[in-house]
Amino acid sequence: MTDLQTLSSPNRLLTAEAFLRLSEVPPEVEWFANLTNKATRRAYENAIRDFMHFTGIQQADEFRVVTRAHVIAWRDDLGNRMLNGTTIRHRLSALSSLFDYLCEKNAVTHNPVKGVKRPKHDSTEGRTPALGDHQARKLLDAPDGDSLRTLRDKAILATLLYHALRREELCKLTVKDFKNERRGVPHLKVSGKGGKTRYVPLHPAAGGLIHDYLELAGHGSDETGALFRPVSNNMKSHGEKGITPDGVYKLVRAYSGKLGFEIGAHSLRATAATNALDHQADIAKVQEWLGHANIATTRIYDHRKTRPEDSPTFKVNY
Questions:
Q1: Among 91, 154, 167, 292, which one carries the catalytic annotation?
Q2: Is there a catalytic annotation at residue 269?
Q3: What gap in Å lies between CA 210 and CA 170, rounded to an integer?
Q4: Are both 228 and 79 inside the same structural domain?
């Protein structure tokens, strides 16, 4: 889909030609251009491209002849490709979002995704595996040595495991975000989903490791630059560029794989949330800590109800 930014110059007012071209942009393209969150934009783009490939749609206005039968056929094809229920629901949600916008713009009379049955949730518990306490401690100790890469990796793993950050949130951290204080307590300033900012108290263990990393890396005074950087960037003039989400994913996979339990970066978020709840953290506070809009999402990490020792069985006393 065409990016609306290509239709105008950022340095001057719209020309008459550019104004007319913008007024003729199809609402399908306008909907996509209005997605500001990069992760949402990427996920929705993948979903819409998949639907277009399946149906043979090539032009934006062809969405206006889509029927519920097309959507059902696509849903069934996704299932035949062995995609899990969560992925199918997300793709249908993306397509439904597009048609809701088209309805709002009177480009179509109804949303053909409405009424299409979606796969049920497999359970109320998340699929992302959480580590046990002993595994988390092993992972924190996995980077061995005192090289720049080792100190950086120790700091990254600690930041994820002690603060339950998403990998995208970690990559957005600047040096200045690490230097916040609230009521005399060091905090991380975290830029979360939907442009929401939250302040998370800095765990002393993670704070010490970040200080060690910055001291060796030498960019502690570059407050607007990225906190965590590719090691090679610290030696170049453009060292302010941060590590990428893919880089964080590969880092976690590499260290956990060597320990025999290969996981993704999101498992560290699940581990932190589960650990906090297991140690009696208030679930409403955990919701705020994680940056969840809905507490139902936080409950996915609450495994206390499944612990045998908490069963009413052991409360029976004759």
A1: 292
A2: yes
A3: 12
A4: no
Q: Which residue's structure tokens are 């560029």?
A: 241
C-alpha–C-alpha distance, residues 239 and 229, integer Å: 7
248 in Cβ contact with 169 (< 8 Å): no
68 is catalytic: no
The pLDDT confidence band at residue 311, using thresholds 50, 70 and 90, is: confident
Active-site annotation holds for 41? no
Q: Answer yes or no: do 281 and 141 share one domain.
A: yes
Full DSSP string of 59-81: SGGGGGG--HHHHHHHHHHHHHT
pTM of the model: 0.64
Please indicate whether residue 193 is annotated as part of the active site. yes
Active-site residue, from 89, 118, 266, 299 = 266
User: Does 309 score more than 60 pLDDT?
Assistant: yes
301 noted as active-site residue: yes
Q: What is the model's pLDDT at position 127?
A: 63
Residue 94 shares a structural domain with residue 203: no
Q: How far apart are CA 285 and CA 200, in angstroms?
A: 11
Which structure tokens are listed for 220?
């502690």
**Domain presence at residue 138:** yes
d(CA 235, CA 179): 23
